[in-house]
Amino acid sequence: MIAAARLLRRSIACLLPVLLGTAGAAPATAVEDPPARVARLNDGEGTVVYAPAGDNEWTDANYNRPLTRGDRLWTDKGSRAEIQVGSGAVRMDGQTHLEITTLDDHAAQLSVTQGNLYVHVRDLPDGENFEVDTPNLAFRVAYPGDYRIDVDAVRGTTRVTIHSGTGAVYGDTGDAVPLAGGQQIMFRARDLGKVNTQESPPQDGFDRWAAERNRHEDQSPSARYVPREVVGYQQLDAHGQWQRDAELGWVWLPIVKGAEWAPYRAGHWEWIEPWGWTWMDDAPWGFAPFHYGRWTQVNSRWAWVPGRMGPHPVYAPALVAFVGGSSKSSVAWFPLAPEEPFQPAYAVSPLYVSNVNRNIVLTANPDYRYQHKPEALTAISSADFQRGKPLRAGWLRVAANMLTQAQVVPPPPMPGRGGVANHAGKVQQAQVAPPAAAEARQVVANAAPARAASEAIKVAPVAPASAQVKVPAPQSQPPAQSQVAAKAVQAASTPPTVQAAAKPPAPRIDAQRVAAQEAAQQEQQRRVEAARADQVRRQEQARRERQAVATAQAHRAEQAKAERRRDEMAKLAQAARREQSRRAEQLKREQQAKRVEQAREQARREQQAKREQLMAKRAEQAKREMVAKREEQQRREAHAQLVEQARRAADRDAQALREQRAQREEQARREEQARREEQAKRDAQEREVAQRAAQQRQQQALMEQWRRDHQQVLDPQRERARQRPDLRSMASPAS
């Protein structure tokens, strides 16, 4: 009897999550599950601001706020930021505008309208797509590696640099250009018009910063205990320690201050579509432990239990359960234990419920471990909860005697008009914002599915929904404005002489009065139109609020239906136990004397059969786990081999480029040396010629000096010779 009752209770507990998941998905036959992964701002330097999807107000970035489709980021001048997207990282340099166009289980699509982007793709499984769109092109990653995209909004160019890996660039005409490691190409127009092609240049400051972040991420100790797609795992290294538990495996113990600290107690709640109420912790490490895994107490210390996560963990807004009692003025919650399933309050399919709880082992105990423990429960007033007020020391303490009546209830409904304000109802508007040109620029997108790098890639790009500009339909002109326009057209089309004959001149004051009346009529008509538009807007807002209330009421009705179903199943189980007890008691009274030994033998046989069945189940479970571990290990080894081959290929390409560069530098050095030697020879010859010319000039000067000196000596002698008498002429008469 007791064994049958336990078996019935175990069956009810195991069927309860499936029933709740089916009840949550009952209003829609084809439920669109929210994305299983989100992005997060991991690191930032300087001023980093963001604007949520559908909001034009820029606020200071919150590092523990999940980033999803439609969110935008801007880094001011001299600032930098790092975003984790899956297992990869996206780095932004100063004055960069980034928008998340698509982020789900199969695609990550980013839009950059200006600035510099460094993308590090660590893993890219088959069927997944990683794409970056710019005003000129769409770049798709084909293999893990490091890529840089520089968008110059002033010149209208996009430069793509492949540090390692391979990819393809798509143009507006559907053409594609494959790129390999070590290449850098600049494009100007949307038809893939190349401006410049060269090898990858030396790293600048932004590249060195990104490479340092890569090394820091590669050396993260937490990556040995959780998959790299667990968003925010890097922050666990410096704020806690990992410890091995005999039953739970590896757990992480945070370093916290305060004896009253508990999970989900230091932070605030915010409504984020499509999940609803989302917890944002104040701790720098407060992302991964509050959106993945469970919490438990190990030797009176709180410890985070990641569980047996697969390679693609599922993001959850907050892994808690809400409790309520007779009072509706407060909201209370507690963390889920490692064996307790998470029941989403948003519409999901049963498959989503199974995936978000696949890292835990469900037990037959339907009760929650921390439901009635004051040290784990946190409460706040309903008004502060709706406003998103940070808890800090303002949380309410619940007495232990009141927890006995507390029951698990659905989360609070969606906030009313105005939404949830950050930090005590005051929106922290940022001091800086991107220029209007960075947001109004359209981007070329490529929404085609991912393909292998070896395939021919010629897919026509499709503009994203966020980049399409809607042209409003022409509206009818107000009557007064139409009359004025008709009069103006008539006056402009009539010749001056005809105007003078058709209309006598009027005093100037009458024309001013008519113009003032027409202006007043136009202003009145504009106010009427504005009032009508405001009324339509209010009616639309009221309709949306009524629709939200109807949706909430339908959700509560489904939950009440599930509650009634659980009560009916509990009553049936209780009736079955009573009937079985009555029959067993009657059988005991009738045959107690003659079947005692048979009952003992039967009980022994049943116990032995159960023991053997349990051992067989355990052996089968161990066998399945061993096969799963072996397959997972083989997959990881194969993936590691592929990654290692890619890295070796990239290293070989880089080594070849370095050798080519060294050869060119050596050739240039030799040519420069030969040119210098030739120049030295020419300089020596010129100096020798100059020396010879100088010697000749010196000899000529000496000869000229000697001639002048000799002339000075000969001239007097010649003069004296002319003055002496001729002896021959004097001797002739005498003879």
Walk me through the structure.
Among the domains are: 1-8 and 554-590; 9-29 and 230-425, no CATH class; 39-218 and 439-467, Jelly Rolls (Sandwich). 27% of the residues are buried. It has helices at residues 2-24, 205-218, 288-291, 350-356, 382-387, 400-403, 436-440, 479-493, 496-502, 508-591, 596-723, 727-731; strands spanning 39-45, 48-51, 59-60, 72-75, 80-85, 88-92, 96-103, 107-121, 129-133, 138-141, 145-152, 157-164, 167-170, 176-179, 183-187, 194-199, 240-245, 249-254, 267-272, 276-281, 294-298, 301-305, 320-324, 330-335, 378-381, 407-409. The chain is elongated and about 200 Å long. 41% of the residues lie in helices and 20% in strands. The chain starts with a helix and ends with a helix. Helix 1 packs antiparallel against helix 10 (508-591) and helix 8 (479-493) runs antiparallel to helix 10. It has a 16-stranded mixed beta sheet that branches. It has a four-stranded antiparallel beta sheet with strand order 25-24-23-26. With 735 residues, the chain is α+β, with helices and mostly antiparallel strands. A hairpin with a 4-residue loop joins strand 9 (129-133) and strand 10.
